[in-house]
Write a structure and sequence with these properties.
Protein name: ABC transporter permease
Mean pLDDT: 84
Shape: globular
Main location: membrane
Distance between the termini: 69 Å
GO cellular component, one term: plasma membrane
Order of helices and strands: HHHHHHHHHHHHHHH
Number of helices: 15
Structural class: mainly alpha
Helix content: over 70%
Pfam families: BPD_transp_1
Low-confidence stretches: 5-13
Organism: Streptomyces pilosus
């Protein structure tokens, strides 16, 4: 009995000390356990390799590119680019002088890229949304069609674009064989990889490999819309188009906002598609700004001007992204209100 009494007294005394320390502001703070510190610091420790890679792969080259844009870096200073003369804002002045050949070519490339991006993003979203909405209804072979729709997105970019380059050949390509030889839609076999038709060829390839991503994202967003809403709308007499307009599109607004932004950034910065499709020298009709900056840097060996173009492109994309996010956030707040 004495042992039990002693243990009870000790426990009560300890509880009283903890209570007094809790309510006493002047009491010394209790030491944290080392294990808790390790648990708090573990996430930052795990993120450290990713932060270092981000610094080395993206941030450091970006800073170097900004520095190069203020230098007169040509092929004569490639071995030691730090000794290149300081050009100040001359590279930027040359780039935005639209009356000069360099600025005029850059402006034409910029406008071509804007048109290409609007058409490509619009068609990718339209095809992806139509396919995703159609695939919501269960039918025989739906799984096989979903898999086939994702094949262009799963294929490596180089393999897909090289295949299209062969298909767009004038004399022995599949496109001309179908359009000219089989269907007779053209008077003669057109050139697709040079001239004005190169823009159409580039747009076809971009949409072909981009719309499955839109299909995948929209199809995932459609899974969160309850089927009861569609059933109730059908009982009220709403047709298919009314359901899409009143239920599907408003419900997909958050998904579409992110999807359109991602597609815009990917398409506007696309370098692999025109480079693989046309080579180092893209036709004027398909001269996207990404390939134009590459040609200005590595064809003429004027890296200062090319870096200035890259910095201006980065600023443009930051401004457009910021305005887009601001407008979408305002629209979201207005819809919630």
């Amino acid at each position: 009995m004495s042992t039990d009494t002693t243990m009870t007294t000790t426990a009560a005394h300890s509880a009283g000390e903890r209570t007094a320390r809790k309510h006493d502001p002047g009491a010394a703070p209790r030491r944290r356990r080392p294990g808790r510190l390790r648990r708090i610091g573990l996430p930052y420790l795990l993120l450290l390799p990713a932060l270092l890679l981000e610094l080395l792969v993206h941030l450091l080259p970006m800073v170097i590119g900004i520095v190069v844009s203020f230098k007169e870096l040509t092929q004569f200073y490639i071995r030691d680019w730090g000794t290149a003369p300081w050009a100040g804002l001359d590279n930027y002045s040359l780039t935005v002088d639209f009356d000069a050949p360099v600025g005029e070519a850059l402006l034409r490339s910029f406008l071509t890229t804007c048109l290409f991006t609007v058409l490509s993003v619009g068609l990718c979203w339209l095809l992806g949304a139509a396919a995703a909405i159609y695939m919501q209804e269960a039918f025989r072979g739906r799984g096989i069609l979903r898999t086939l729709f994702l094949v262009p997105y799963a294929l490596p970019v180089y393999a897909a674009v090289i295949t299209w380059a062969f298909m767009f050949q004038r004399d022995n390509g599949l496109v001309n064989h179908v359009l000219h030889d089989q269907l007779g839609l053209t008077d003669s076999a057109p050139f697709w990889l040079i001239g004005d038709n190169s823009f159409i060829a580039l747009l076809v390839v971009s949409v072909w490999k981009g719309w499955p991503f839109a299909f995948l994202i929209i199809m995932a967003g459609l899974q969160n819309i309850p089927r009861d809403i569609y059933e109730a709308a059908a009982l009220d007499g709403a047709g298919v188009w009314q359901q899409i307009r009143r239920i599907t599109l408003p419900s997909l607004r958050p998904v579409n906002q992110v999807l359109v932004l991602v597609l815009f950034l990917w398409t506007f910065n696309d370098f692999n598609t025109p480079f693989v499709l046309f080579g180092k020298a893209a036709p004027e009709a398909a001269d996207l700004i990404s390939i134009h900056i590459y040609q200005s840097s590595f064809q003429t060996w004027n890296f200062g001007t090319g870096s200035a173009m890259s910095v201006l492109l980065l600023l443009f994309l930051l401004v457009v992204t910021g305005v887009y996010l601001w407008l979408t956030s305002r629209g979201r707040k207005a819809a919630d209100a």
